[in-house]
């Protein structure tokens, strides 16, 4: 996104040993990327850290200083390995205590005998935190300043975004157009693509090859060319010109 | 992994605008996590950055100083947006030039008319770089000091690991055992799990709830408890004791 105009920027912080051990495949980063793109909020970087307070604090402080928004996922459940609320409190230098509204939500959700000390932990929020509604399982996330703290379970994280979206200032969304070139590798289109990129410095041009399966036929190899920018007519014009340049060079463009 | 003994540590750096835009779902981080775990190399953190030299250099320099190994994926193809070799050169403060062996590999791979300037770019390696074989599509990766620079295409990245594995010093692998608890949420097992974790401070205990689909039956909710450690008998003993504690509390353990 180096060549796109300024817009609010964001970072994602995925928290959890299970991602780093390989046990769980993260999907939250992609969900957040797809959530932010149409809002015109530029996702600039993402990090994955383990269930360690020092790591979470260091990453959070670096990211919240560098970006307009930080979205964290993971570590807000009832078990001893859920340390995100404390880590966020430590990062901001504020105490963490039971949030009355969060407590009320949880009390309503559980039968009296079920609402034990472990589940009460999910009401703990750093000072100044504003709750993020969890319509799936009750236990809320929370926002502290520019940091949105959400669940790690993908279904819950995704549901929380409904409550997050209205709180974000938005930017001009990035438009993209793709061209699917087949029958040649990306090396065959590189010069044409570079010239197109140099001609339109406000746009971003990417090339993503495909067809590396074991015994592919030459017809099945190719590359996806992606043009991105904030000005839709300019992106459309770039696609039109690039298509023409590729066809002039005898390169086949497949329907997408 | 906070509670596991020292071992070589590693970080992953995923490079590419397409991951941050949400267009592409990264799978390389998980592949690397699963590759490193049995070698006893602890993956401590991962980062995703865009195709921007300043971002790549900053992340790479932070990660290579903090860990025994860094594995990067993406940005080593023939197009103008492939800037990883230059960024790695800049991070190490060394020039980048055509590597004779890489050039020979590429010359053999392409017909004379096909081996154009763009494809020659894939022979560019920072000074001191040692090639990493690419049995899928020829164009090699490279190792500079403790940094392994690999392709972004998952099939190629995975194939490169065969050449990377023998270069790593290994540690004692982490063993893990899982217990699948059903019919109750993780809040119901939190106290038992915490006591188990406190009794065995050298092990790591995680809890990962499931069953948050739209209209689940209570019997389909539950949590996966994961015990991890370097001492297999200790992990086995912990699983045995935790199972007994859960059963004593009337909690059902499903076959895994």
TrEMBL record, chains A, B:
Residues 11-171 form the MoaB/Mog domain. Coiled coil: none annotated. InterPro entries: CinA, FLAD1_M, MoaB/Mog-like_dom_sf, MoaB/Mog_dom. Signal peptide: none annotated. This is Molybdopterin-binding protein. The lineage of its organism: Bacteria, Pseudomonadati, Pseudomonadota, Alphaproteobacteria, Caulobacterales.
């Amino acid at each position: 996104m180096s060549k796109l105009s300024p817009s609010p920027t964001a970072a994602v912080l995925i928290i959890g040993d299970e991602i780093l051990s390989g046990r769980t495949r993260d999907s939250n980063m992609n969900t957040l990327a797809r959530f932010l793109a149409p809002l015109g909020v530029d996702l600039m970087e993402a990090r994955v850290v383990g269930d360690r307070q020092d790591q979470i604090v260091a990453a959070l402080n670096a990211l919240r200083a560098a970006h307009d928004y930080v979205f964290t996922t993971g570590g807000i459940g009832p078990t001893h390995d859920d340390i995100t609320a404390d880590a966020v409190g430590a990062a901001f230098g504020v105490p963490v205590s039971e949030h009355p509204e969060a407590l009320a939500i949880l009390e309503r959700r559980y039968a009296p005998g079920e609402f034990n000390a472990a589940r009460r932990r999910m009401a703990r929020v750093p000072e100044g935190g504003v709750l993020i509604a969890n319509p799936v399982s009750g236990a809320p996330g929370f926002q502290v300043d520019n940091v949105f703290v959400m669940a790690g379970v993908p279904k819950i994280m995704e549901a929380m975004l409904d409550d997050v979206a209205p709180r974000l200032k938005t930017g001009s969304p990035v438009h993209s157009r793709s061209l699917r070139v087949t029958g040649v590798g990306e090396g065959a289109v590189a010069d044409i693509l570079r010239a197109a990129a140099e001609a339109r410095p406000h746009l971003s041009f990417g090339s993503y090859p495909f067809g590396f399966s074991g015994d592919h036929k030459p017809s099945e190899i190719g590359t996806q060319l992606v043009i991105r920018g904030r000005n839709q007519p300019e992106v459309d014009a770039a696609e039109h010109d690039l298509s023409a340049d590729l066809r002039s060079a005898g390169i086949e463009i497949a329907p997408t």
